[in-house]
Design a protein that fits this description.
The protein is mainly beta and 106 residues long. The chain contains 1 helix and 6 strands, in the order E-E-E-E-E-E-H. Strand 2 (15-20) and strand 3 form a beta hairpin. The protein is globular and about 40 Å long. This is Cupin type-1 domain-containing protein.
Length: 106
């Protein structure tokens, strides 16, 4: 089983501001997401909730079959995880649209 994976987040309720690319990164992306939004996050991209805008924000994380979430901060001792991220393949099917979709157009 692989423990470092790409991730798909589905917003199941509420509205919130999230950060992608670590808050100390000047090139980070901050987005307001709400119920019904779906986000594909490549492995190795830092992400976190910055602000629950209405209370009750919830999201669901999904991973390719055989994979699970894992934390990787790029710290000493995590070299194998970082190397593993570089060797990950991309999605064979779009997690929302199936055989065609924007994830496959990368």
């Amino acid at each position: 089983m692989a423990f470092t994976s790409h991730e798909v987040l589905g917003i199941s309720s509420g509205r919130a501001r999230l950060c992608f690319g670590h808050e100390d990164n000047p090139k980070r992306v901050e987005e307001v997401l709400e119920q019904g939004d779906v986000i594909v996050i490549p492995a190795g991209v830092a992400h976190r909730l910055l602000e629950d805008l209405e209370g009750g924000f919830e999201m669901v994380g999904c991973y390719p079959r055989g994979c699970s979430w894992d934390m990787c901060y790029g710290r000493e001792g995590e070299e194998a995880k970082v190397k593993g991220i570089g060797g990950l393949g991309w999605f064979e099917r779009d997690p929302v649209y199936g055989d065609e979709g924007p994830v496959l157009e990368v």
